[in-house]
Amino acid sequence: EELCDGDASCPQGHKCCSTGCGHACRGDIKGGRGGDCPNILVGPCIVSCWVDENCQAGEKCCKSGCSRFCVLSVLLTQLAPNPNGTVRSDSEFEIPVP
């Protein structure tokens, strides 16, 4: 069951985590970094991290499809709203991943 859609849809201090059958907000998750994941263009399924702390300083572990990558985070102020009301990163922040 999908009870959240990303950390931003959860209360402050909570993270949106996989339950195996969907996602739910959890407040007992330690760690994580500020900023948000940019749009990532992905080909094959590649997992190079599981949590932000697997990445270098200033990077977040971001999910795209079945892949997870360390990428530089963006601030919400750098994100532009889509016409449908969702938030996306400006194209200068999109990162193609092989």
Automatic annotation (TrEMBL):
Pfam families associated with the record: WAP
Domain WAP: 30-74
Family matches, as InterPro entries: Elafin-like_sf, WAP_dom, WAP_four-disulfide_core
Keyword Cytoplasm assigned: no
Coiled coil regions, renumbered to chain: none
One Gene Ontology MF term: peptidase inhibitor activity
UniProt-listed PROSITE patterns: WAP (PS51390)
Gene3D superfamilies: Elafin-like (4.10.75.10)
Keyword Manganese included in the entry's annotation: no
Annotated keywords: Protease inhibitor
Gene Ontology CC terms: extracellular region
Name assigned to this protein: WAP four-disulfide core domain 3
Species of the source: Sus scrofa (Pig)
Lineage: Eukaryota, Metazoa, Chordata, Craniata, Vertebrata
